[in-house]
């Protein structure tokens, strides 16, 4: 499966992570090469996480982002847990920053998600990848405080990227406390994205029966509008969903509900040929769009993302939460690494 940025995960990385979680080693470093997240190396380390982070810092290049997966000794529990660190230097290329940031959630999900990772950390300076940086992060976690130094740096990075992509006066999103992104319209920097009346009616119908509706952002970037190929009040099979409802050319949010009494799947697709501005706009509005759907009375059971409908069809067909028991797999699918402590 690939992310909306078109980045995929190599089988080598999947294999190395499976070995890493049972190895007792301190860290695994991953990088993006040739449009794929790939394994770089593992660090054996010692019993001192601070000293190990000091050493890991020497393995990094000041202007090149990396993913760091670090064995977290501070976690209280029977199973081994890990810290997921996104290292994105301030002076890295803008495209590189975007690729690493937009593919981060995909990588975490593919490697076990919350069942493996106790904390997510954003660092922008090599000096932060150190015993001192780790201690500062843990101290800030215990405080109900404003942004940490690394979070403030990440906020600055995101705001600068938004300025470069859209211009200061037309910025389509702003970053709030904690480094999260709040969706706003293009014409008014403080106006949350809205839902068209037609889209509201379609979502209301979807609360009462099956169907699949597509939502796209209008040209002004202010409103979620209903696509022409949306269907409510009738069953839509998975092939129709991929071939008809999901737009193969433009980014789209799709809400798919297989039965009247079932839950829905929220799908975000962004074709690789989409313009960079479109990718950014849809990426920052994804969570608000999902919240709008949930607030409409539709229970969203899972969220999927991909560059096309074909990217997410396997997740729909084989995903246990979204598929009835009689749905039989038709082709092989990668088995994600099992979390530590499970058989």
From TrEMBL:
Domain of life: Eukaryota
GO cellular component: actin filament; cytoplasm
Region (Disordered): 324-343
CDD domains per the UniProt record, alphabetical: ADF_Twf-N_like (cd11285)
InterPro entries associated with the record: ADF-H, ADF-H/Gelsolin-like_dom_sf, Twinfilin
Subcellular location, record wording: Cytoplasm, Cytoskeleton
GO biological process, one term: actin filament depolymerization
Molecular-function GO terms, alphabetical: actin filament binding; actin monomer binding
Ranges of residues in domain ADF-H: 6-139, 183-322
Biased segments, Basic residues type: 333-343
SMART domains on file: ADF (SM00102)
Keyword Cytoplasm: yes
SUPFAM superfamilies noted in UniProt: Actin depolymerizing proteins
Keyword terms of this UniProt record: Actin-binding, Cytoplasm, Cytoskeleton, Repeat
Family the UniProt entry places it in: Belongs to the actin-binding proteins ADF family. Twinfilin subfamily.
Quaternary structure annotation from Swiss-Prot or TrEMBL: Interacts with G-actin; ADP-actin form.
Protein name, as recorded: Similar to Saccharomyces cerevisiae YGR080W TWF1 Twinfilin, highly conserved actin monomer-sequestering protein involved in regulation of the cortical actin cytoskeleton
